[in-house]
Design brief:
single chain; about 750 residues; alpha/beta; 7-stranded parallel β-sheet; 30 strands; globular; binds adenosine-5'-diphosphate; binds zinc ion
C-alpha cells in the first residue's frame, strides 16, 4: 500500500464512524501505520491530543494543510481498536472497502434504545378500586370502569397491554392517575433472545469424561498453563463428545476471568445447543445471531462489553463480539460452509478467528468429525495441534456401512430409486418400529450429465470437472464453467455407447410419492427448504419425528447436521454421487462430509445403526473411505488430487465475480480485468477464465467469473489491490459489480 495520508476516525462511539479526518503520516512512522493502528493526533482548533484509529491509507486528500500524526499510541488497545485492525486485515485479504469491513466487525452502529415499559398499578386498595369501578359504571364511564376491573383482575399491566386488552387510551390512563387511583412506573427491561428464555438451569448432571476426552482436555489445559497459544484441531468421530471437551476447557478459561466465543454453524443454532451451554455456564452465556432484532443484539453486545457474560454462542458473526479479555475461540463443525460469508467481504470465519486470536493472545479449537482438507493438512504439517477421538462417548458403535452399486440394480432390472438392499432394510425398520432417515443430495442438482448405464460423467477435457447441460430444448450442449469450453451434447455415452445419458435430478417431493407407493402405510415426513421456510420450521418437522409420529424422514442436506434421534437406526443416501460431479474442486470434500455426517445420524444411542449408500461409483475414494471407516484414506487421496491439480490448500485461489444487468459491460470489464491480472501477475500466478459463471444469469444480472491461483498468498492480495485501485473511477463500474471469493487456506 503506497500513500502518505491516513484517514483517521477520532471517536468510536460508533455513531461517528463515517466521519474520518485526513492526517499526514510522518516519514518515521510510515512502516508502522496500518488500518486499525491507534494513533495520537492533534485535533480541533486548539490541537488537543486525542487518540484516533487509522481506517485507511491513501495518497491523496481533498483537504489542504493537513496536520501530522504525532505518534502511535502504545500499550493496551481498546477492543474496538483490535476489531478495527482486524477490519483492516479483512479488507486487504478478502477485498472490500474499509467501510464494509468496519461494518462487519462493528456491526451494531447505533445505540438501539432500550425498551421502556410503563407499568400500571393501583395506589388504592382493591376494595376501594371495586367501589370506584361501580361509581364509574353508574356514571356510564365504561372505559374507565373497564380498565379498573381489568387491573383488578391482572394486578399489574403495561400500558401496551392495557391498551390492547382493555382498550384503555392514554386519556383514560391519565385521568385515573390524576385522581390518584393508579400510578405509572417506568422499568427498564432488557431484551432477551428467544434461546435464553425459560431455561431450566438446574438440570446439569456432571459427567465423567472418557479417557479420550480427558486426554484432549489435558493437552489444551497444560499448554494453557504454560502460556502457550495454539490452534487445535479436535478431530473426533460423530458422538465422540466434542462439546463436552469444549465445555471443560471453557470452564477453566472462564474461571480465570477470560472470555470465549463458541461458533456453531447457522443451522445448528437451536434452543438445544444453547441450552447445553447454559446448563453449565448459566447466565454467563449468551447468544448473538442475525435473526435477533437489532435491539436484542445491542443489549447482548453491551452485556459482553460490560463483562456481564463470559461466553457468546453464535454463527460466524458472533466472532466480532467486543470481548476485551478473549482467551479462546471454539469453532464447532469447522468444515461447515456457513463459516464463509456470502456477502462482501466474503471472509472465512476460521481464518478471521485465527487472526483475531493471534492479535489478542487467544487459542482456537476447531472441532469436526470431517475436518476441511485445509485444516487436515495444517494439522498434518504441525501448524495446528491435533487432538484425536475415535470412539463414541456413550460406547455406541459407528454404523455398519453398506455400499450398493446402482449399475448392478439396473442390470437386475430394478428401476426403482430404492435398491433391493435398501428396500429390505427399510421394511425391517417398519416392522421393528424403528426409524429411517433418507438423504437426497440436492447439491447434485446443477445439471451434470451422466450415463444411466455405466455412470460415466461427461467432463471438460481441459479442467477435469464435470460439464453442465445447457439449452436443453433448442440447442443442447455442454459447457465447462471453469474455462468456458463448450461441446455439443453427445448422443451416446463416450464410454459404453449406451443412449441413456441425461442430466440427473431427484426431488424430496418425488421421493415421498414413491415411498407412498412402495411402502404403503409408512408415515413419512419431509424436510427441505420448502417445508422449513418459516421461523422454527426445522423444529416443526423434527419434533414429530423425534416423538416417533413418523417412520421415515426424507430430506436434503439439512437432515444430516447434528440431530440426535435415538430411534433412527437406518440412514440411506439415495444418490450419493450426485455432488461428486459438480464443477467445483471441493465437490469430493463436500460429498465426503455430507455422507459422513449422514451416516453419523444412525444408531447414536443403544440401538445399532446401519448406513446404506447407493452410488454409481462404488470405487470412488470418498465411498471407499466411508465403507472402510478409514477417513485418513480420503484425506490422503484428496490431498494428492489437490496437489497435482494445483488447488487449495496447496495454492491460494481467488474467484472474481463480475456482474451487471448489461451483458456487454460484463464482458468488457472481464477483458479489462484479464489484462490487469496478466500485467501484475508474476510467474507463479495462473489465471483461468473469464468464463460465464456457474450461475451465469441471476436476478437479471449476467455473471462472469475469473479464477486466479498462486503459490504466494501475497500475489492474491496484489491482484485484489490492483483491481480495486484501477477500477475505482472506471465508467463501467457504474453498472458493474465486482466481488471476490477467496478460498480459505
Ligand atoms: P459430538 O459433538 O462429538 O458429536 P456430543 O458432544 O454431542 O458429540 O456428544 C454425544 C453424546 O454423548 C451426547 O448425548 C453427550 O451428552 C454424550 N456424552 C458426551 N461425553 C460423554 C461422557 N463422557 N459420558 C457420557 N456421555 C457423554
Ligand atoms: Zn474446462
Ligand atoms: Zn456409459
Amino acid at each position: 500500500m503506497n500513500g502518505d495520508i491516513a484517514s483517521v476516525i477520532v471517536n468510536i462511539s460508533v455513531d461517528a464512524l463515517d466521519r474520518s479526518f485526513d492526517y499526514l503520516i510522518p516519514e518515521s512512522l510510515k512502516e508502522r501505520v496500518h488500518p486499525g493502528t491507534p494513533v495520537l493526533i492533534p485535533f480541533g482548533r486548539s490541537d488537543r491530543k486525542v487518540t484516533g484509529y487509522v481506517v485507511d491509507i491513501k495518497s491523496e486528500s481533498k483537504w489542504d494543510n493537513l496536520k501530522e500524526i504525532i505518534s502511535i499510541q502504545e500499550g493496551e488497545v481498546p477492543v474496538e481498536g483490535q476489531l478495527l485492525s482486524l477490519a483492516g486485515w479483512i479488507k486487504e485479504h478478502y477485498g472490500s472497502t474499509m467501510n464494509e469491513a468496519i461494518r462487519t466487525v462493528l456491526p451494531i452502529r447505533e445505540r438501539v434504545k432500550s425498551v421502556e415499559k410503563h407499568w400500571l398499578n393501583f395506589v388504592i386498595s382493591p376494595e376501594e378500586a371495586e367501589k370506584i369501578a361501580e361509581a364509574e359504571e353508574s356514571k356510564h364511564h365504561v372505559a374507565k370502569a373497564r380498565l379498573i376491573r381489568g387491573l383488578l383482575q391482572d394486578k399489574t399491566l403495561t400500558t401496551t397491554v392495557a391498551h390492547e386488552r382493555y382498550k384503555a387510551t392514554k386519556a383514560v390512563v391519565d385521568s385515573l392517575v390524576k385522581v390518584g387511583v393508579i400510578a405509572v412506573s417506568d422499568e427498564l427491561i432488557e431484551r432477551r433472545p428467544d434461546e435464553l428464555v425459560s431455561l431450566e438451569t438446574d438440570t446439569y448432571k456432571k459427567i465423567d469424561l472418557t479417557d479420550e476426552q480427558k486426554k484432549c482436555v489435558d493437552t489444551v489445559l497444560s499448554d494453557y498453563d504454560k502460556g502457550e497459544k495454539h490452534t487445535y484441531l479436535l478431530y473426533g468421530v460423530t458422538g465422540s463428545g466434542k462439546t463436552e471437551v469444549y465445555m471443560s476447557v471453557l470452564k477453566r478459561i472462564v474461571d480465570d476471568g477470560f472470555q470465549a466465543v463458541v461458533l456453531i454453524p447457522e443451522i445448528a443454532l437451536t434452543h438445544q445447543t444453547v441450552e447445553r451451554f447454559s446448563r453449565v455456564f448459566r447466565d454467563r452465556v449468551t447468544v448473538l445471531h442475525s435473526r435477533m432484532s437489532a435491539g436484542e443484539r445491542y443489549d447482548q453486545f453491551v452485556r459482553a462489553k460490560n463483562h456481564e457474560v463470559d461466553i457468546v454462542v453464535g454463527p460466524r458473526s458472533a466472532l466480532f463480539v467486543p470481548f476485551d479479555r478473549l482467551g479462546l475461540i471454539v469453532i464447532d463443525e469447522e468444515h461447515d460452509g456457513s463459516y464463509q460469508s456470502d456477502k462482501t467481504p466474503t471472509y472465512h470465519a476460521r481464518e478471521v478467528a485465527i487472526e483475531r486470536a493471534k492479535r489478542c493472545g487467544a487459542s482456537v479449537i476447531l472441532g469436526s468429525a470431517t475436518p476441511s482438507v485445509q485444516t487436515y493438512l495444517a494439522a498434518k504439517e504441525g501448524r495446528y495441534k491435533l487432538l484425536r477421538m475415535t470412539h463414541r462417548a456413550k460406547g455406541a458403535l459407528l454404523p455398519t456401512v453398506h455400499v450398493v452399486d446402482l449399475r448392478e440394480e439396473l442390470k437386475a432390472k430394478n428401476r426403482s430409486i430404492f435398491s433391493r438392499l435398501l428396500k429390505e432394510k427399510i421394511n425391517e425398520r417398519l416392522t421393528a418400529g424403528e426409524q429411517t432417515m433418507l438423504f437426497i443430495n440436492r447439491r447434485g442438482y446443477a445439471g451434470f450429465v451422466s450415463c444411466r448405464s455405466c455412470g460415466y460423467v461427461l467432463k471438460c477435457t481441459h479442467c477435469d470437472v464435470s460439464m453442465t447441460e445447457h439449452g436443453r430444448n433448442k440447442n443442447p450442449h455442454l459447457v465447462c464453467h471453469y474455462c468456458g469450453h463448450t461441446e455439443p451434447m453427445p448422443e451416446k455415452c463416450p464410454s459404453c455407447g449406451s443412449p441413456y445419458i441425461a442430466s440427473f435430478g431427484l426431488g424430496t417431493e418425488q421421493v415421498c410419492e414413491i415411498i407412498a407407493k412402495e411402502f404403503p402405510g409408512a408415515r413419512v415426513l419431509r424436510m427441505d427448504a420448502d417445508t422449513t421456510k418459516q421461523k422454527g420450521g426445522h423444529e416443526r418437522v423434527l419434533a414429530p419425528f423425534r416423538k416417533e409420529q413418523a417412520d421415515i424422514l426424507v430430506g436434503t442436506q439439512m437432515i444430516v447436521k447434528g440431530h440426535d434421534i435415538p430411534k433412527v437406526t437406518l440412514v440411506g443416501a439415495l444418490a450419493a454421487d450426485m455432488s461428486m460431479n459438480l464443477s467445483d474442486f471441493r465437490s469430493h470434500e463436500q460429498t465426503f462430509d455430507l455422507l459422513m455426517q449422514a451416516g453419523g445420524r444412525a444408531g447414536r444411542d443403544e440401538l445399532a445403526g446401519e448406513f446404506v449408500i447407493q452410488t454409481y461409483q462404488p470405487d470412488n475414494y470418498c465411498i471407499k473411505a466411508i465403507e472402510s471407516g478409514e477417513s485418513e484414506y480420503f484425506y490422503e487421496q484428496e490431498l494428492s488430487f489437490r496437489r497435482i491439480s494445483g488447488y487449495p490448500p496447496y495454492k491460494s485461489m481467488l474467484k472474481i465475480l463480475i456482474s451487471s444487468e448489461n451483458k456487454d459491460h460484463v464482458n468488457e470489464l472481464s477483458k479489462k480485468l484479464e489484462a490487469m491480472i496478466d500485467e501484475v501477475g508474476g510467474d507463479s500466478l495462473t489465471r483461468i477464465g473469464p468464463a460465464p459463471d456457474l450461475l451465469s444469469f441471476i436476478r437479471d444480472r449476467h455473471r462472469m467469473s475469473l479464477f486466479v491461483k498462486s503459490d504466494e498468498p501475497s500475489d492474491i492480495d496484489k491482484v485484489i489491490m490492483t483491481i480495486d485501485e484501477r477500477t475505482d473511477d472506471d465508467p463501467l463500474m457504474r453498472d458493474c459489480f465486482i466481488s471476490y471469493h477467496r478460498s480459505p487456506r
